């Protein structure tokens, strides 16, 4: 149950079987940091290639393909006070041709925000709009994390899949536990792409991009094969489907929740259909990245006592 | 500001320019009832052809094409104690082939529920599963309502579009105000398909199907052209996109919210992009019907004071 | 086996259970004409409301729901020498945002073409481009035809479905036989929206829009239920799926062809999968209309002798 | 203009920056072979891990990121007489639930074929169906080839993207020239996954999988940036979009063809829209793999003389 302080020096633009930066045991905690999506650190210095550069990978001793990795995010906290964000909604999220017909539509504009972690607020600094210095509560999260995928793939941190990756789901905040399938020895866990806050769907293609101090703890579940990332909050179990179109992301997330209820929690199949059918909730992770993300949730309180 | 009590005798399987059953004034309230999706009334009698038969249409005096209809749902309350519901998740919501590989998967099973409007609960009566007599809180809503569409169309109540229709969005509950584009003289408002409760996404293809007592009030907004249904709750404004795939429903809902912020609430375009980009929320209406439904929401408290 | 000459006077913007303009017998032939998509006739006069106005409906004596209508297109021939066509590719067929980034991109431009039915050519008259007076061979077809749909629907001639409608498939040319499911007594057959030629996919949203002289013959197949439009050419059988997204149109067309091979031509199921799996061909009807159209084809010569 | 004979010994399950097996010059020809999708060679021996193992990569001297690689397939010829193929259409290509309702539907059945390269035929050996020993003409092609992608990715040979990959387009046959964007020094060209023949759309998820003798020649086009694979046959230019859903594959292919006409062939933008709009043809590559493939084609004879 060691506690490791790890200062990252190398960053990765793909999630793959890269050399481990630290070997840890199940039960250990890691205190580390992530740079922002553009590769800037706590001081604003460019220290990595832009495009969701990742801290890691962390090798979990004993992890084998077919096991499941549990990662509890104990802390996700901005470590500087400036965030940048896209100021325009992506064309693909709007009706085809809509932006072409709006001469005043913002094109790839950038907004700057001041982040106050004491007040837990973000204040719009620029551009100058009718919103003035809009103040929003922050809700820090990690847009991208995951484990090395199968068959030796090295997958761009722009996209996501069964291994996790750039899911851009704002539900991955501190206090949440994530579960990931393990494809390689040691699992090889990566993390990065912090957002001080993000709209549901990430329709601008960004959150308030910022570097983070992160603390996480890991556990191993042997031979607990899962097909897609899962998670648990105080109130919910959830499953994550990453694909295009959104319909297919829904299919993956819903099927994975049905497996959880039936295969893992041993609910009979008909019961699982009814429970999920009438208690399911969905969150939209992102509708911007190369793979979209949909999340299927079930309230823990309605689960039958085991 | 009259209050009409209207007992329906004819029901419609399409939303179109059918003869009005009642003419009302803007500001009036109508107290009426709807049969369930299968055409059964408060006593369980089959009085209409199955397939979301609609009460109406109500002709709103003065309504002209290009105006906007406001409908406030004052009351949506089950008027009997039995509901039926599909007990199996639709194949299209799960990974292709998943159900084929599950020999025990429920196939078009039906669940029966007891609905207690005093306790505001629904209790599972059958089939017999590990859930036993699962009790869920009810949350009554209307799955299908709308106005006569343009160019003389008569659109099946199985599907939805700019005119409303079978949106199966559980956010259309009592207390909510809906806004609809008007395509024909008198608007011609229809309603039906009550659900005592429905899971998000309506992944089984049904809610707890039940007949309802409904009270609603109407208002007219001249020359207030909108493209898709809109709504307002105590806390949110929302817009509704009805299409396949889900991505396109997201495009319609998001574009319509951008129009609301920019064209109607007069926020500058860049401000509208930023506000929506970082405060948007999405609900999944349904991923089952011929047209899916996605809802884009914005919290009213973050809107700039006008 | 009568031959009817029918001059249309009323035109319909929906395909539905409208009053029949002519009652004919199975085996009969009809010689008639269609106006162009904008409602202009052979003389260029505006005689109908724009939006694919339809000639008909023709009532086929003896047709009952559950029967199948056979329509052989004996002749589809432009009856004037001017056609108009969109000169710009629709935004939805291009990468999101692509057109916004092309300042010179044509926006809703219109092209005029001279059609020479003797030479069987179309010559570009305007606008002025590097193509000059581009000459293309004509290939006349009907973009929209179908029968009255079920449950009393009146479906816009902008879209398509199991009943046919605005499929905009350039394979519906003279010499082709179409098969349609029958939903109402008399079938009620409509036709219109002629194109002197059309690109595959109809990516501009139009063909060379022109009025047509049409001759067609009908036959009835009692209790020969089909789910989607089918067709036959000299060389191929084909099935037509109408839906969004394109994937779903593929699903409908492929499933319908499997039914044809297995249910109707009595091929064993495994044989049907193999034959279709390795001999299927696909045409893209349109990727523009509210419902897209994909066509699954199978060469007749590879069908086992019955 | 050397001619290299290369016998592969290592095979790759990803397309990425793996060590080059041979360095060649622009203008050179390579005579080599590929194993089948399951990793079996000309003698039927298992020599590679199943899953479209690739021969290569070939390093093209002088190739730089931003250049374009030209690969002419001079010969693609089966080098054994046995092929295996899936005998069942994939569930995702059929209506959801269709297969569940067909008790006799084939489930993951395998067909064996005898391939006669002299007669240029494939004969069905098993399973036993009403097709008997169906004989089809062979049409050998490569399902998967491509170059190392950007940012150090190693992309599974199950899928495809801008770098090529598992496109499963039957138009990549001998005589065709392919063009690929170059992302890394030396380009690093891979090839494999031969099909003796394949149905359009690859709806069973396989072709007649077989090992091949392949001869190809390469050329370099400096600073000729393209976004997606392109190709040329005797009669057509074509562009390839790889994505889900099919609509998005259409968008990529169509946009890339517009760039070819406008940016490279210097047709004015309006002319390019009209030419493509009325002369486009589409082929369906595959509707099975993680990324689908659509191909946009334009007949060379209608291009304006430069």
The gist of it:
Four copies of one chain form a homotetramer. By secondary structure, chain A is mostly beta strands.
Topology:
The structure is a homotetramer of 306-residue chains.
Chain A: E1 3-5, E2 14-15, E3 22-24, E4 29-34, E5 54-60, E6 68-78, E7 82-86, E8 110-116, E9 121-126, E10 135-137, E11 141-147, E12 155-156, E13 160-161, E14 164-166, E15 177-181, E16 189-195, E17 212-221, E18 230-232, E19 236-243, H1 246-264, H2 269-279, E20 281-286, E21 292-299
Parallel strand pairs in A: 1-4, 3-5
Antiparallel strand pairs in A: 2-12, 4-17, 5-16, 6-15, 6-17, 7-8, 8-9, 9-10, 11-14, 11-16, 13-14, 15-18, 18-19, 19-21, 20-21
Helix pairs in contact in A: 1-2
What descriptive keywords fit this protein?
homotetramer; 306 residues; mainly beta; Jelly Rolls; nine-stranded mixed β-sheet; 37% strand
Structural notes for this entry:
With 306 residues, chain A is mostly beta strands. The first copy, chain A, has one domain (1-306): Acetamidase/Formamidase-like domains (Jelly Rolls, Sandwich). The first copy, chain A, is built from 2 helices and 21 strands. A 9-stranded mixed beta sheet of chain A has the order 1-4-17-6-15-18-19-21-20. In chain A, strands 3-5-16-11-14-13 form a 6-stranded mixed beta sheet, with no helix packed on it. Chain A has a 4-stranded antiparallel beta sheet with strand order 7-8-9-10, with no helix packed on it. In chain A, a hairpin with a 3-residue loop joins β18 (230-232) and β19 (236-243). In chain A, α1 packs across α2 (269-279). The longest helix of chain A is centred in the last third of the chain and has 19 residues, at 246-264. Chain A is globular and about 55 Å long. The two termini of chain A are 29 Å apart. The model of chain A has no long low-confidence stretch (mean pLDDT 96). Chains in contact: A-B, A-C, A-D, B-C, B-D, C-D. The interface between B and C is medium-sized, with 15 and 15 residues.
